Amino acid sequence: MSDLQVETNQTDAASGGSFAVTESAARQIAKILSAEPDGTMLRVSVEGGGCSGFQYNFTLDDTRTDDDLVIERDGATVLVDTMSLMYMGGSELDFVDDLIGQSFQVKNPNATASCGCGTSFSI
């Protein structure tokens, strides 16, 4: 495994992108991960699909790869692969709890359009 610099707002030199995790998101992720086996992390990725062309994917993962961007904050570990970071560079992962409900939201400055559910976007 390579040496990884881990910060709240991490920049990946290879792709030129950054990804941040808010305090609210970190608390919720840590809560979810506390019920999982040690070493489990949240992987945020982008895949083709959804109603706008791309969609965010949130999965639990116990494996880091050498090209993963790793963000650790408040007991939460978030992984973003290099390919996904090309679409999410400069983004922020937040957890929102409002009258409509609770959800993770990616605030992506690269998205030119998104659907009403907030999990699908286009560039």
From TrEMBL:
GO terms for cellular component: iron-sulfur cluster assembly complex. It comes from the Bacteria. Pfam families: Fe-S_biosyn. GO terms for biological process: iron-sulfur cluster assembly. Residues 20-118 form the Core domain. The keyword Signal does not apply. The keyword Membrane does not apply. This is Iron-sulfur cluster insertion protein ErpA. It comes from Pyruvatibacter mobilis.
